[in-house]
């Protein structure tokens, strides 16, 4: 197998052998890049953590556990957290919420929906989403290319051992095999616990792509119920807002749906309230402008008095100079 550099910057390069499959009977080497975990915000476990990048798309915690067991033996690996795990869950949840309610309902519920306690809201939302979610067609998530992960080991000594073992693989050319469950030191502990790869995994996906009709119908019914519930809530809000002028005096107009048009009496009453608000605002503005006019007049009068006083003093000074004037003979 061709050998690459042992290190690139702060990263140690870990070659991983990808076993051949019937559709591609060739040996392939995949490179993982490993370094000490140094996040911007330090945590208590940084000294016994490793940061991995270029993680394979079919990675799971079990695969990484088997990989590290083949390097330093079992008992050193504690857990692994993938970067895309939280983001994927959030995007799937958000897309389900957006799809489960009409656009008009979404706007009304966001602007005028009743606020509930956070715990109650999250619990109710989780129940609704679980019932409306379609059966999964994958046994595990497929991660994006170049995904990253943080591996937590037993202690700081284990980090040193892993880094030394990675450097040793470049000398011995014995690369750990990706997906193997019989790593050194793993023995019976890891046997049978690594999820399958290749055609076995894809066959399981193909089976799950054709879910049971009863389960599929239950998910569709739950989704339809959730959609209708959101639409009904929006209709109730629209009915409550109908013919209620806002702070600017405008009346919310609702069209379609189950909301009936306003009666003539209700419309006239809404118009009267709107005119009263407008008249009140106009009166307030008029009083405000009168106040400004009074203040401006006071300032002008004070300025006139000041100039009059200055002119009077100048005139007296000129008269005093004229009295002292003696013409030459």
Task: Please state the CA-atom Rg, rounded to the nearest Å.
Answer: 39 Å
Name the helicity range.
40-55%
SS summary, helix count: 8
Low-confidence stretches: 88-97, 182-191, 257-261
Largest sheet: 6 strands, antiparallel
Give helix and strand order, one letter per element, not per position.
EEEEHEHHHEHHHH
First-to-last CA distance? 130 Å
The percentage of residues in β strands lies in 5-15%
Strand order in the largest sheet: 1-2-3-4-6-5
Gross geometry: elongated
Q: What descriptors fit this protein?
A:
329 residues; alpha+beta; 6 strands; 6-stranded antiparallel sheet
Write the layout of secondary structure elements.
Elements: E1 7-8, E2 11-18, E3 28-36, E4 49-55, H1 61-72, E5 77-82, H2 83-99, H3 103-112, H4 118-132, E6 147-153, H5 156-172, H6 198-208, H7 213-241, H8 264-323
Antiparallel strand pairs: 1-2, 2-3, 3-4, 4-6, 5-6
Helix pairs in contact: 3-7, 4-7
How would you sum up this structure, described in words?
There is one protein chain. This protein has helices at residues 61-72, 83-99, 103-112, 118-132, 156-172, 198-208, 213-241, 264-323; strands spanning 7-8, 11-18, 28-36, 49-55, 77-82, 147-153. It has 329 residues and is of the alpha+beta class. It has a domain at 7-208. Strands 1-2-3-4-6-5 form a six-stranded antiparallel sheet. The longest helix has 60 residues, at 264-323. It is elongated, with a radius of gyration of 39 Å. This is RRM domain-containing protein. Belongs to the RRP7 family. Residues 118-131, 265-279 have a biased composition (Basic and acidic residues).
């Amino acid at each position: 197998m061709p050998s690459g550099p042992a290190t690139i910057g702060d990263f140690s390069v870990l070659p991983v052998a990808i076993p051949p499959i019937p559709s591609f009977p060739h040996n392939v080497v995949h490179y993982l890049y490993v370094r000490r975990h140094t996040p911007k915000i330090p945590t208590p476990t940084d000294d016994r953590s490793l940061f991995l990048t270029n993680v394979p798309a079919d990675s799971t915690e079990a695969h990484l556990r088997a990989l590290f067991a083949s390097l330093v033996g079992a008992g050193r690996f504690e857990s692994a957290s993938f970067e895309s795990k939280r983001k994927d869950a959030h995007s799937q949840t958000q897309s389900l919420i957006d799809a489960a309610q009409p656009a008009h309902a979404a706007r009304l519920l966001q602007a005028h929906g009743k606020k509930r306690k956070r715990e109650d809201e999250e619990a109710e939302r989780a129940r609704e989403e679980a019932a409306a979610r379609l059966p999964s067609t994958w046994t595990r998530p497929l991660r994006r290319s170049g995904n990253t992960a943080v591996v937590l080991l037993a202690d700081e000594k284990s980090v040193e051992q892993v880094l030394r073992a990675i450097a040793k693989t470049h000398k011995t050319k014995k690369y750990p095999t990706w997906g193997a469950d019989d790593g050194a030191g793993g023995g019976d502990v890891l046997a049978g616990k690594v999820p399958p790869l290749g055609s076995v995994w894809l066959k399981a996906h193909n089976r799950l792509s054709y879910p049971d009709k009863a389960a599929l119908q239950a998910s569709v019914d739950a989704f339809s119920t959730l959609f209708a519930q959101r639409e009904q809530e929006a209709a109730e809000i629209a009915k409550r807002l109908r013919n209620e002028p806002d702070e600017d005096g405008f009346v919310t107009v609702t069209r379609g749906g189950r909301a009936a048009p306003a009666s003539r009496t209700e419309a006239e009453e809404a118009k009267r309230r709107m005119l009263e608000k407008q008249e009140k605002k106009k009166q307030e503005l008029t009083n405000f402008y009168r106040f400004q006019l009074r203040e401006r007049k006071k300032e002008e009068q004070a300025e006139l008095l000041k100039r009059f006083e200055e002119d009077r003093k100048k005139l007296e000074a000129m008269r005093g100079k004229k009295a002292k004037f003696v013409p030459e003979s």
